[in-house]
Structure to design on (341 residues):
């Protein structure tokens, strides 16, 4: 029984390479499939433009699905909005123009990174304020602790035995 | 007692924040339109009834209208349709349809089957006009005044409740102002 086991380990197993090949094909399929079935196949002629296009479509929220960027959403409105971004970039518009275009139509919600405005100020300021409160509280605690005077000044028994 | 004051205050603050969130949860997902109190976006599109004619915002100027975004592919629009027919019957405000990313033949048979509540229907094949109006899911309705200003937007189905609470009061204010 034991010998059989050892033999199994050392003898070349025909199934092993087949399995490897199958895995390789599956993995390759994942990599290629992700590209083939990507929501957005748009390719702009200029790599610089393409980079800006990708940045913008990842920064704009899909207004219908709302937790996805328009780059990742299969919704019809998302592809319409991607087309607007593409056409505006091809027409030589700046990133800011594209953002303003979307803001005028869909409001602050459409930007994953909302701009700093009176209405959105709290979004930006709250984390800082909370951090400040946290820092203040911990500073007070640390200061209070370091001011503590030990009540028991007797040496420990361990120390005595030395 | 004092050392409990801060945690209790923070807890109370948290309760308030969460209560506000829960209170507004029915609005969750509804994007407030930045168009309210702004000029209605211009468009000039072919008419559904006769593609050689155009429907344009310039000809709509000078009177109130309710722009209703719909499509024969849209399920909620079917539910809304009965109310739109009511609106037409009331004669209080003309309905202008914006047929959004639809097939013309299907849209026509929809109106033939269910009844046509619209004074005129503009056809938006590529969805660009809908984007200008900040449309993201049909149905949506916009109330526009004679100065061409969007005064109200109804996101989703135009229910009798919306008609009575939001649209009628705005229309009645107009009558009070003119008489």
């Amino acid at each position: 029984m034991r010998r059989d086991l050892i033999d199994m380990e050392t003898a070349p197993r025909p199934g092993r390479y087949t399995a490897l090949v199958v895995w390789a094909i599956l993995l390759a399929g994942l990599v290629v499939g992700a590209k083939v079935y990507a929501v957005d196949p748009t390719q702009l002629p200029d790599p610089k433009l393409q980079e800006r296009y990708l940045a913008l479509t990842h920064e704009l929220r899909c207004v219908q699905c709302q937790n996805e960027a328009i780059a990742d959403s299969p919704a019809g409105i998302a592809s319409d909005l991607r087309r607007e971004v593409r056409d505006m970039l091809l027409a030589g518009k700046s990133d800011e123009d594209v953002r303003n275009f979307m803001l005028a139509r869909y409001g602050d919600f459409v930007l994953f990174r909302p701009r700093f405005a009176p209405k959105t100020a709290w979004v930006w300021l709250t984390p800082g304020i909370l951090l400040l409160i946290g820092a203040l509280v911990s500073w007070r605690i640390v200061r209070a602790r370091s001011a503590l005077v030990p009540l028991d000044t007797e040496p420990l028994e361990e120390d005595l035995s030395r | 007692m004092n050392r409990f004051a801060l945690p209790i205050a923070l807890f109370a603050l948290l309760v308030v924040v969460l209560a506000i969130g829960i209170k507004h949860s029915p609005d969750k997902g509804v994007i407030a339109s930045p168009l309210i109190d702004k000029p209605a976006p211009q468009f000039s599109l072919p008419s559904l009834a006769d593609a050689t004619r155009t429907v344009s915002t310039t000809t709509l100027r000078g009177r109130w209208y309710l722009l209703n975004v719909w499509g024969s592919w849209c399920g909620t629009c079917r539910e809304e349709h009965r109310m739109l027919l009511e609106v037409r019957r009331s004669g209080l405000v003309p309905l202008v349809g914006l047929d959004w990313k639809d097939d013309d033949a299907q849209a026509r048979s929809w109106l033939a089957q269910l009844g046509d509540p619209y004074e005129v229907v503009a056809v938006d094949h590529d969805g660009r006009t809908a984007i200008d109006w900040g449309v993201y899911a049909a149905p949506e309705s916009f109330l526009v005044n004679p100065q061409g200003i969007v005064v109200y937007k109804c996101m989703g189905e135009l229910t009798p409740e919306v008609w009575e609470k939001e649209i009628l009061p705005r229309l009645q204010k107009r009558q009070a102002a003119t008489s």
Observations:
- The mean pLDDT of chain B is 91.
